[in-house]
Amino acid sequence: MSTMLSRRDRVIPYYFVLFFVVIAIVDGIMVTLAVRTHTGIVTENAYEKGLAYNKVVAAANHQKALGLKMTLAFEGTAKAGTVKLTMADAQAAPLSGAKVELQITRPTQAGFDQTLTMVETEKGTYSVPAHLSMEGLWQLRAYIHHQGEALQYATRVVVAP
What we know:
By secondary structure, the protein is an alpha+beta fold. The chain has helices at residues 7-10, 12-37, 46-51, 53-66, and strands at residues 69-76, 81-88, 99-105, 114-122, 125-130, 136-146, 149-159. It folds into two domains: 7-37; 67-159, Immunoglobulin-like.
């Protein structure tokens, strides 16, 4: 038997080292991407919102008891569209004279949120032009102040290009 290692046999330990170096580099890239793309914050002021949860539930039950009928829709494309809100009371009479603030958010990405003030275009119908930066899923939430009542209505829409 020969104690001399062939040239191929001498590089085998380097293959093991190379394998672990490649794994370490890939892991480093994945960790860097994970840290840069997600802040970790899901809800701002989560503790305070949790304490106020019973108030939120009571307000939602009160709004449901009023029997209001609301629709919130986006018409158009991402570059040129309009958001319309229609409101009627339990007897189907249009609700007029409300102050409506619209919050548009993108559930999948931060940095694209907008807050707009809707104007009444006809009795019980409020609208505002909305220029969204891209197509896809958006959340529309209307905050309504009508005759001392604080109401809200939300829906999700998919915007075409």
